[in-house]
Design goal:
The chain has 467 residues and is an alpha/beta fold. The two termini are 16 Å apart. It has an eleven-stranded mixed beta sheet with strand order 1-3-2-4-6-5-10-11-9-7-8, with helices on both faces. The chain has a single domain, classed as Alpha-Beta Complex (Amidase signature (AS) enzymes), CATH 3.90.1300.10. 34% of the residues lie in helices and 14% in strands. The chain contains 14 helices and eleven strands.
Amino acid sequence: MADDLAFASIAELGRLLRQKKASATELAKSCLDRLERLGPQLNAVVTVTRERALAEAAQMDAEIRQGKWRGPLHGIPYGVKDLIATKGYPTTWGAEPYRQQKLEADATLVERLGAAGAVLVAKLAMVELAGGMGYNQANASFTGPGKTPWNTNYWSGGSSSGPGAAVAGGLVPFAIGSETSGSILTPAAYCGVTGLRPTYGLVSRHGAMALAWTMDKLGPLARSADDCAMVLHVIAGKDPKDPSSVDRGFTVPQEHGSPARFRIGIPKGADKDIQPEVAANFRAALKVLADRLELVEDVELPDLPYGAVAGLIIAAEGASAFDDLLKDGRLSQLTAPEDRTGGYGALAVSAPDYLRALRVRRPMQRALDDFLKKFDALAVPTRTTVATPIDKPFRDGWPGITGGANVIGPTNVVGVPGISVPNGFGVQNLPTGLSFTTRAFDDGKLVTLGRLYQSRTDWHRRQPTLT
């Protein structure tokens, strides 16, 4: 498979398979080659699942020869963040203490992708324990700091560092990441790909590492909003093994069914006191859609303690999830020095404080939903800067940036969906992102907005140079 085909969309690869111009085995081998050859440059790969990939691809080819077709993901290679269980291979959670951990069965999400014909080619790198110990630098994984393919001196974003870099570098057509507070949208923005954070509960997390089980979500990173939609259609839905999953699926929205105009709220200060290039790209993106948008400027989210509530919930639930590490001293084996002590403070969170945070979250959800009802979506720059340098603490990466609108935190704590699509380049030729947020279970509207923008731009088709 030529390198330019490595950046093809799911639909484009599917057409080649149906027309028998490529085979699932050829696609898998090409991805395996790029994962092994280029993955180390990006610190993006933990395990290449070569034996499994070739077996699955051979089966998909046999079915194609028999005239069987499982759907749009039939024969399409993919990777998963290494907190998602895969039978027969290590699931390391990005952390040295779990480097040899093997779980007995595939996660529900992997089972669903396999049933749809997708071919697992890799377990992808991540920040250790998904950032649960409070990391403040890129080098917080035994695989090393994740690097964006656009400039390997800069971070690919966390905690789904590997999925973001692998998709951007053409190592896989799509990957599965996880988000508790920004871990899908951030690597999507820093790597110049599309990331979709589903509504909480829409995708089963059975078989995935828990950081904060009342906030964690699994979702796709891919070339485009359309690609993300095809993946979400397969992985969404009720799972008896995950009590938090909801009894509803996801249908890919029809292109002709979207409204003539979208009412879009711009939070107050969204593009103020941020990197000028990020602000300029945000406004340019909105102009691209000017004939379809009704912009409402300077809207203000309900004034509620989102950050405090999210921080307390993540601390308490993370301390419980990693109780063994905190008690037996293996926390000292983590890579980032701050992670080796970062979890102990969470042990001081009292049960009344945790329960109070959960109770506060209910009216918080209602208030934000009432606010979001006024709009089809909110729009913001996904991040206020481009990717941070890998050799500096995050706080020192881009000094002097004090503005922007905090949307990722509030929307994660209440569980509503978001999408990030690439919308240009900034400092050091690093990508920037445009983000939309909607009400719970309006995930389809995010796809429609992302698709509309990507039908008028080609940022999602740009390719970094890797050798």
